Amino acid sequence: MEPAANVLDLNQLRRSCSSCALYELCLPAGIGVDDLDRLDATVKDKRALDRGDMLYREGDPFEALYVVRSGALKTFVQNEAGDVQILGFHLPGEILGFDALATNLHVSQAEALERSSICELPYAKLQQVTSEVPALHRQLMRVISREVVEEHRHLVMMGRQQAQEQLASFLRSLADRYQRLHRDGSALNLPMSRYDIANYLGLVVETVSRLFSRMEEMGVLQVNRKSVRILRPELLAALCRSDAAPRRKDAG
Amino acid sequence: MEPAANVLDLNQLRRSCSSCALYELCLPAGIGVDDLDRLDATVKDKRALDRGDMLYREGDPFEALYVVRSGALKTFVQNEAGDVQILGFHLPGEILGFDALATNLHVSQAEALERSSICELPYAKLQQVTSEVPALHRQLMRVISREVVEEHRHLVMMGRQQAQEQLASFLRSLADRYQRLHRDGSALNLPMSRYDIANYLGLVVETVSRLFSRMEEMGVLQVNRKSVRILRPELLAALCRSDAAPRRKDAG
DNA sequence: CGTCGTTTTGACACGTTTCAAGTATAGTGG
DNA sequence: CCACTATACTTGAAACGTGTCAAAACGACG
């Protein structure tokens, strides 16, 4: 394991997985030191992305899985009409690219929200290693499953929650993930725009903006542009539940 | 529902995959006759489900993939508060159970909407066969990918479309799938309740009911309870697009 | 320092939900 | 088989939340 306080300390980020400060978060989590070396060898040179750069586009051939090393990305789909729907935001330690596992073609797109660096796991090599290291295979499956569960959460959010509940859920989810990164989960620095948040939740920008203001008035948050401080976590948690204004959208 | 030239003719449904009238729709599609026999041997006794019966529940161990042989099912997730969100409806020839692939535990639930019969593909055996028959493995992947794409469509529908556009899209999707079954795509017999449709789309029953009425007034549909006839397919297609009332929910 | 894109705020319109009632339908037991 | 009840579906009127349009404030950046 890595020294102490800040796992994100860039000085500690070196080339190999075995010394990757995020290693307990991504694929190698729970893998023995010896096996780590094997995985290490499959990681290709990291890629650096600027804000707006695409990691992959729809239709791109499946070449690798990607782990966010630093920065943040969004993934989205685009229909014929050009409408964009953001599927998710991806923070350091999180893995992208599963969408191409089935067809060998990406069916969604990934774009950097800010300057980011990426670990590339060429799938051909990865496949070879996973077949030899069962523990890694299990870990890969575990990560894919998180993806599926996350998609379900997204659907429930959009289908059953009101705007305010949605935003509260969204912020809590972000806070949780920040904490897993050993960062302060109560002082978020949002890498995405209000437009992105709105799109992700199926709302318009104005609504999101108003909700931030309202939650600030309520004393739940302290908002300043991209910087959001959670002042009353327990209240934020309460806002996620719809018992205050129960909708009866349940199936018969 | 048993006319002669009907692929669903139960008389033609026999025990084995090679004579399964739906075989071009499910897993064996595109598999050679010889390999079909091998898959055939892995199919366990079919299960019969009554309306309301559960095929699997959240937390159930992953034992098999299931192919709908006749009837229809719905899959859904349920959050802590008990809120249900329907993920999809499954018609004959369609496969369920992928949600457990990663954790070996089901994370969603499947319930029969009407009397249904199910092909069970025990995963242990299936895995063995797929490892020996690469074509089957590819086909399995292709099917999983459809699942992912379908989830994305669901998200776009909920996030970007208005109620009427959603219902139109939903009906078109159903019609398409009916046609693939060689059934009349313009005379739908909805296996799910209005509550189910509403839940799936993130609406309330009343809204769905009103929309059916409105679309009937417009001359697009002829609705009688579960039976829906599509009178003007081109109009229905037009209703899916939001250019009539463009919302600007796009990401910046 | 001016321009551009992002964010915020306000007033208003509209779609969807809510609440309430009524009608059809299917399932059940006599 | 019919009557009866529970459930599913429909319809109306009103309330509410979110979208729309417009404009201003703010910050980033050349």
From TrEMBL, chains A, B:
Coiled coil: none annotated. Keywords: Activator, Allosteric enzyme, c-di-GMP, DNA-binding, Repressor, Transcription, Transcription regulation, Virulence. Residues 27-104 form the Cyclic nucleotide-binding domain. InterPro entries: cNMP-bd_dom, cNMP-bd_dom_sf, Env_Response_Regulators, HTH_CRP, RmlC-like_jellyroll, WH-like_DNA-bd_sf, WH_DNA-bd_sf. It is found in: Cytoplasm. The keyword DNA-binding applies. PROSITE patterns: CNMP_BINDING_3, HTH_CRP_2. Residues 161-234 form the HTH crp-type domain. Homodimer. PANTHER family: CRP FAMILY TRANSCRIPTIONAL REGULATORY PROTEIN (PTHR24567), FUMARATE AND NITRATE REDUCTION REGULATORY PROTEIN (PTHR24567:SF75). This is CRP-like protein Clp. It comes from Rhodanobacter caeni. The lineage of its organism: Bacteria, Pseudomonadati, Pseudomonadota, Gammaproteobacteria, Lysobacterales.
